[in-house]
Amino acid sequence: MGQAWKCAGLRWAAEGPVLVWDGGRRSSLVWGKRVAFGVVEGGVRRCVGARGYACARGVVVSGRSTGGRCEECGRLDRAHSVAADRVADDPRPYRVYLAWFGPGLVKVGITAAERGSVRLLEQGAVCFTWLGVGPLMAARRTEELLRAALRVPDRIPYAVKRAVRAALPDGEEERACEIREVYGRAVELAGWPESLEREPCQPVDHVRAFGLAGAPAAFGEVSELVAGGSVGGELVAAAGPDVHVATRAGVVVLDTRLMRGWELVPVGGAGPLSPVSPEFPVRRFDVGDGHRQDGLF
User: Fold this and answer.
1) Beta strand 250-255 with 218-222: parallel, antiparallel or unpaired?
2) What is the DSSP letter of 97?
3) Contact 296/236 with Cβ under 8 angstroms?
4) 217-273 pLDDT, tens digit each
5) 205: which strand partners?
6) Beta-carbon neighbour count of residue 146 at 10 Å?
């Protein structure tokens, strides 16, 4: 067996997406790049730990878990999470945003102002606009106002995002239409916190940043990694934690969070580990109207 690697996840920066590996090595992801890797035969997936600490017990975790953590490490990871409402006294300014992931899928959220739009890239937002900026609790109250008054959710499952990503409208204006509509309704609401400074509606489109412009649509997603399995092909796009890989069977989406905790090895050549077809289980997308939010407009 060759050298095994452990993936620490996909990161987004100004220059684009990068895969980070344990030990600090980074692999830039560029469209057209050949990618091929497999899981060590007979290997198991172990908890990745939390907040820079290894899992004390080295617990074996499910191949379908996107967190890649045992229950104890999962609780530790959420203990100081703004996203999980565990922090209320962060003095930094926060921005409230509206994000659109596909027809009928708009969410509201917050992010530290100093992070810019990185949070939106991490979530795979196809387009977004800022709503306002202010103290953390003012941002939280605004987020809750939109959830209660407009029934705009603050979370959308990644499985839903992937499925609708396969059938996005072609034009930027069409993709921004729902964002503008929700923004218009939001700014008319009473009860906005006085300490939140409103921002103009200026939709930002990420289709080109994600490599989705002109890219072939994916037909399904890798549901889990398994010992002895592999996937390989040409990288055609990336959005949020997902990479889109063109294989012999078509384009499949791989959530890179599923890679964490496994020992991974490069594969190539002919045979069962051929880098031109998916060997991991793949779930086909069912793109229809079932994903649409009820009562948004």
Assistant:
1) parallel
2) E
3) no
4) 999 999 999 999 999 899 999 999 999 999 988 999 999 999 999 999 988 754 443
5) 127
6) 24
Q: Average pLDDT of 143-167? A: 93
Say yes or no to pLDDT of 215 above 60: yes
- What is the reported pTM? 0.88
pLDDT band at 4 (very low <50, low <70, confident <90, very high): confident
Output phi, psi for 132, to 5 deg: -175, 175
Mean pLDDT value across residues 16-43: 91
User: Which of 18, 21, 19, 17 lies closest to 7, judged by CA?
Assistant: 21
> Amino acid identity of 286?
D
Assess contact for 262 and 241: CB atoms under 8 A: no
Cβ–Cβ < 8 Å for 69, 46: no
pLDDT at 103: 94
Closest CA to 13 of 117, 132, 158: 117
Give the closest residue to 241 by CA, choosing from 253, 227, 229: 253
- Strands 7-13 and 197-198 come out as unpaired
Rounded CA-CA distance 159/220 in Å is 10
Dist CA 232 CA 237 (whole Å): 14
Inter-residue contact 51 to 76 (CB < 8 Å): yes
d(CA 266, CA 268): 7
Interatomic CA distance for residues 291 and 297, integer angstroms: 15
